[in-house]
């Protein structure tokens, strides 16, 4: 499963202080205060546990200025960005002064908005000139000399697309060819108000940048948008993309020649890659209907329209990565510049951040929690009578071999980052040039690796992010270093809080290895689907209960995620109970730390309170409204209504809202 899963972890405190700066007692005192502050004791926990646990959360966590949402995730993300800002603006080197100087100069050039503004539209004009001759800049343009493949090659020298998309994903020996990205989907292009505004923006841009008269600019803009509208019809919708067996088709250059004889594939790929391409080169088409349809569209359209669309599409990509939000406030600027610095120098930022914030004790603690969870999940799976023994044996193989990786380089390890730079020199006064030089350098690396067959760097190892991702093909759960920050994870807090927060996420991710998608990925030498038909049928039947329950109660997200949420809560609680029972008599001092003085809740009740407050969240309906929406309510309440252990802990009578008679149970 290469779908990136971004977990919006809504944490227990928006104003949590960095635990490394506090004593263990101070951290515990703050955590206890947060728990009680957020409770609304006027609500019966058996009526609505979300409102009971999070009823007063809004009084301590207002949405940031100009935003509608208040979440622990957004607060933590802001804290990480602030750490990166301080890191990039500090004078002292963390590990390599020369490397860090280049990164900091790139960041500084992005912040230098006075210089960027002074250049006006000149950088855009220079960029267009590097792509060749176009009707928007030359009234004497000769269409007989136009070849869209030549323009594609020049656009792809920057990593941009024209009319055909070209990508390299994790497959080191495959090129991905297919559709491009557009500003809107086909519904957007059918909205007159949206399109009128879009056309007006194009007109103003053409007038200001190239001095084109209003009438001519309007004609060009309408032709471009009409061409985009026709493209939007052949771009796959989300439902089509979801069926990967149809959306991705494996082929070769030779087969492409036979399938689409009107496309000069050797020329297209040779010029795009920068070297002759072999006919046997593996290719993956994404949206196989797109190539045929776009070729028909190009044949019908005038060359002038195609040329103007391609240059406009290139300008859009160029502007999106080279123009900071000059009209925004200072926060908008530095956040944008941090994002761009991470995008262009991922390895350098990763090493700088990791060496500054990596904690070996945290890694050991997380690995211990993960191993406890694996053992507990195995025990729970053994109890499931509806999974046959053969399927269960394969599930155990996957579970036993599962690994966890904290995305962040340990301190003391020198990680080469030369591939971030090559011979590039960052000029603190030349942001545009810095970006273009880096784009050219990145494409050079891309081309050499495609030709040599070396492994393409798959996903950016970004420790300064909030990512939890289970990669089924690698049987590895990957968590970013930033994810393991207070208030989501604090190494000095008791085990019940760690299992309630981090533990539930770890189980959620692990269970994706056995859900509808995980069943399609082979285990060992056993091809997919590796589940027996009988077990698969029962799995699907039990899943229907969750689909109906969540639809009825306004829940969203995918069925797989909803089922994993339920399993995550159940199995993380069972893991914690086993741990607590194991030390209850042998280590009474440690067990005592699982509760807080002055809080009249047991250690197991605190588990559920902590889990709920992890997902506290509210959104204002409008910027000026005090009316609140609670989109996370179902994510807290529904898994608990399905769990007998929760009802037992809070003594919820059968038939109460939080203890319905009919429950959905799969894991």
Describe the structure.
The structure is a single chain. This protein is 54% helix and 6% strand. With 667 residues, it is mainly alpha-helical. It has 2 domains: 19-84 and 359-408 and 461-649, Collagenase (Catalytic Domain), CATH 3.40.390.10; 135-322, Neutral endopeptidase, domain 2 (Orthogonal Bundle). The protein has a 4-stranded mixed beta sheet with strand order 2-3-5-4. A 3-stranded antiparallel beta sheet has the order 1-9-10. Strands 6-8-7 form a 3-stranded mixed beta sheet, covered by helices on one side. Strand 7 (468-471) and strand 8 (476-480) form a beta hairpin. Helix 17 (330-344) crosses helix 18 (346-357), helix 19 (360-382) packs antiparallel against helix 20 (389-401) and helix 19 crosses helix 24.
CATH architecture of the largest domain: 3-Layer(aba) Sandwich
- Flag low-confidence runs: 1-21, 455-460, 622-630
**CATH T-level topology of the largest domain:** Collagenase (Catalytic Domain)
- Rg from Cα: 28 Å
Overall average residue pLDDT? 85
Biggest sheet architecture:
4 strands, mixed
Q: What CATH first level of the largest domain would be assigned?
A: Alpha Beta
**DSSP helix fraction:** 40-55%
Tally of separate helices: 28
Strand portion: 5-15%
Supply the helix-strand structural class.
Answer: mainly alpha
Could you tell me how far the N terminus lies from the C terminus, measured between alpha carbons in angstroms? 20 Å
Number of strands: 10
Q: What is the CATH homology-level superfamily of the largest domain?
A: Collagenase (Catalytic Domain)
Shape: globular
Q: What is the domain tally?
A: 2
> What is the strand arrangement across the widest sheet?
2-3-5-4
